[in-house]
Amino acid sequence: MPQELNEILGEDGPLARAVPGFRPRAAQQQLATHVARCLDERAWLVAEAGTGIGKTFAYLVPALLSGRRVIISTGTRTLQDQLFHRDLPLLAQALGRAATVALLKGRANYLCLERFKRLPNELPLESALERGLGARVAAWAQATREGDLAELAELPDGHPLRERITSTRDSCTGNRCADFARCHVFAARRRANDADIVVVNHHLLLADLALKEEGYGDILPSADAVILDEAHQLPELAGQFFGTSFTSRKIDQLLADLPTLLLESGFDSRRLAQEETRLRATQAAALRAAQS
Hints:
Elements: H1 2-8, H2 14-18, H3 26-41, H4 55-66, E1 70-74, H5 77-95, E2 101-103, H6 113-122, H7 128-143, H8 184-193, E3 197-201, H9 202-214, E4 225-228, H10 234-242, H11 248-264, H12 269-291
Parallel strand pairs: 1-3, 1-4, 2-3
Helix pairs in contact: 3-4, 4-5, 9-10, 11-12
C-alpha cells in the first residue's frame, strides 16, 4: 500500500485532481504510510503532525482503503462535522471507494420527539422573539431527517432551549417511548452499527468506555481500529471520566457523618472526640499550606 498511497497523495494523483489547491507533501505521505501499516498490523501509533502537513487526509485515506471498520474520534464537534459532511465524502468520491460512513454524537445533540411534544406546556413561549424561535424549531423538527441540533444555528451550545428538547440517560424511556420507532438517537446508533467508518467525539468515546467498564453495556459498535484526532485533549477528559476528586468540602461532609457512623459501630466516644480534633487540625494545616 505505501506506493499506492504515495501515488494517491502525489502531484498527479486523484486528490490533486479533486481537491482545489492540493499539493503533495512528503510528511503527509510518510504519516499515511505509518497509519496504513498500523491498520494492517493492528498496531499502535502515536504521531504529532505540525500545521500544514495535512494529517486529516493522512489518516482518512488509509482508513477508506483498509476495508476495516474504523472509529474516528475528534476533540471537537466542529471537526467531527467537517470529517463527516466534507472530507470523507470528498475523499470517497476521489478514490472511487464506496464506504458507509456514520456520524454519532451524544444524546444531548439530538432532538427528543417526546420532550419536544411537551415543550409548549413546560416552557410557554410568550415573547415575539420566543414565539418566532419556537416556530422555526417546530418547522425544523418536522423536516429534519437526523434530528441533529447542529442543523439549527439558532440553538448554539448553552442555549436554554436545548435541554428542553433533548433527553438524558435518566429521562429516556427507551423502547417504552411512544416515539421510539422514530427516535433520532437510536436511529443514529443503528446507522453507526451498520457503518464502515463511524465519526464520534472524545466525550462519546470515553462515555462508551466508562459504560463498558461499569458493565452497563455500550454506546459504540465494535471496531477493528480507533483513530484519535486532537488527542492532546484526551488526558484532561479521561480524568473527568475515570479520575477521582477529593475536596475540602468532601472532608467536611465526611467529618460530619463519621462520628455518628463510628458511634453506631461501637467506637469509644472519648477517643472519637480526640481523633476528630486531631483530624480537623491536620485539615486546617493542609489548607494553609496549599494557600501559601
